[in-house]
Amino acid sequence: MSIALVSLAGIVLFIWPFLGLGLPPEVPALAITLGAVASLALMEAGARRLDSGRLALLAALAAIDAALRLVLVSGIGGFSPIFFLVLCAGYEFGASYGFLVGAFSLLVSGLVTGGVGPWLPYETFAVGWMGASSGLAGSFVRRFGQRFRPRRRTWLPDRLDMAVLVGVAVVTGFAYGALTDIWGWVAFYRGVENIGWTPGLSAGDTLAQFGRYYTLTSLSWDSFRALGDALAVLALGAPVLMAMGRLRARLGYQILTEEPTGLTRGSTEAQPGAVTGRA
Fold first, then answer.
1. Of the spans 47-51, 202-206, 255-259, 271-275, which averages the highest pLDDT?
2. pTM for the complete prediction?
3. Does residue 265 sit within a domain?
């Protein structure tokens, strides 16, 4: 629910041009973005899902991503290494935490690289939704994955985890490109015949214009991002997910009322009826 409420502000930013209104004013758009991210952080803290340990981890992940973006500001093709940690953190810690990791990573890296501009609200929401999508996928696998695999006894992610995360990386790699292209499309391609944003068109015609623009100018570029994110997950996903899974267990707690049958990913060994991890 908290993600849905915060996402409403972002959805308005992205659909604004398709209503024939051009781009929203820059300062209000940035203020709305900062307010939405801060509101989600406060809601998570108020619900005790964002305690001091998870907040420290959030700061560390945002700092690492900012450093990676400083090294590769423009990325390699459309690929940037900052998306990898966002996807892994969302997969292990959930949708809200994944959104916060993505949003704070972009905001901090924008300050570090001097990339604060009218494009920043679009990038912030787009990367936040990447983390949220990964979190939803991870929650679904943990809830229903036992139907398709035996009971887990190690922290190491299995083929199902890796396959799902690779799929999310590919889909969100293209989705991020399409979402962030909206700002540049309106700002730089205004009035260009057949592909540019043109005032006065209906929402359907405007969407068709954007579809042609994206196919001609960005689809191949975004393929590098989708492929790069998938390869990063395949190469480094297993150890990073394993480490984050152990952190998730240590930063949370679980009340056991029965004799544990074995160590599963996301839980810790404990005596019956004991509280594991930290309260």
1. 202-206
2. 0.86
3. no
